[in-house]
Amino acid sequence: MKKVFGVFGDPIGHSLSPLMHNAAFSALALDCAYHAFRVRPEKLEKAVLGAEAMGFGGVNLTVPLKEKALELDCIEPDPLAKKIGAVNTLVFREEGEGGRKIRGYNTDGLGAKQALLDFAVEIKGSKILIVGAGGAARAIGFRFVEDGAEVIIANRTEKKAIALAGDIAGTMPEGRIRGTGLSGLDTLVREADVLINATTLGMYPNLNTSIVDAGALHPDLAVFDIVYNPLQTKLLKDAEAAGAKAVSGAMMLVYQGAEAFRLWTGIEPPVELMKKTVLEALGT
Ligand code: ATR
């Protein structure tokens, strides 16, 4: 019988995950199907328990459900997801007498890491500047501090950057992290090895905005933009013009999905096909 997988969120109509995972399932001849489900936060628990009861193979959670998942007793978050305070992948594991445990993971930070590794960007010991202090910045920040980077979180609302840096430092006292506002951003960019835009700036329809002055970008920098609509944001165009490495947020989408696929199936996903599928969908 076909195994069903899904992504829960609201809104969910534009999710690329069904296309990406179904392409992977069919390339590997797995008898599986992946669908998008519109689930409101107040219905999340019922939806998760329903999916478990119906024998789903696995579930992704997206906006606005990732944080909500931590409030549910039925989900056991892994230590990293618990620290981040958000779950994007649910795994239903057979455990004990007929019982299935629902485990929650967060693969977003790993997705960002893999996207950078593709461009031969070193994480350990690098100076990583993350602009933004929302959910994406959180997942990425925890991951990179754990991987031994020196992380600065810069955010328009400075106190949110300081609070996030404090949260991360609280769970990883040996880590190197601090939070700040945007006033000294150009200088921070000049001193950074990696710049990550974790804000919504530059997203369609605001095509001509970027969080950073093009003049501050430099050839020794890797620039990663979590925005992937459009694929070529102003920030990434400016990065290329400055001779910097330009890494698309579409790769984070692919790699967080690839990691979820591994957790669900134990099988190595066809990552190149998943990339091609996502890039084609975004290009049209
Ligand atoms: P997500 O959870 O997906 O990361 P979010 O929580 O809405 O999204 O976070 C959006 C981030 O983009 C925030 O850090 C926000 O800054 P504030 O905390 O000051 O609101 C940042 N952001 C959004 N619009 C921005 C703008 N015009 N200039 C600078 N930062 C902006």
How would you portray this structure in words?
With 284 residues, this protein is an alpha/beta fold. It folds into two domains: 3-106 and 251-281, Rossmann fold (3-Layer(aba) Sandwich), CATH 3.40.50.10860; 109-248, NAD(P)-binding Rossmann-like Domain (Rossmann fold, 3-Layer(aba) Sandwich), CATH 3.40.50. Helices cover 38% and strands 21% of the residues. It has ten helices and twelve strands. It has helices at residues 17-27, 44-53, 79-84, 108-117, 135-146, 158-171, 185-191, 234-241, 249-265, 271-283, and strands spanning 3-9, 32-38, 58-61, 75-77, 89-94, 100-105, 127-131, 150-154, 176-180, 194-197, 222-225, 245-248. The strands form two sheets. It has a six-stranded mixed β-sheet, with helices on both faces. Strands 9-8-7-10-11-12 form a six-stranded parallel β-sheet, sandwiched between helices. Helix 8 links the parallel strand 11 and strand 12. Helix 4 (108-117) crosses helix 5. The longest helix has 17 residues, at 249-265. The structure holds 2'-monophosphoadenosine-5'-diphosphate. Residues 132-137, 155-157, 160, 198-201 line the site of 2'-monophosphoadenosine-5'-diphosphate.
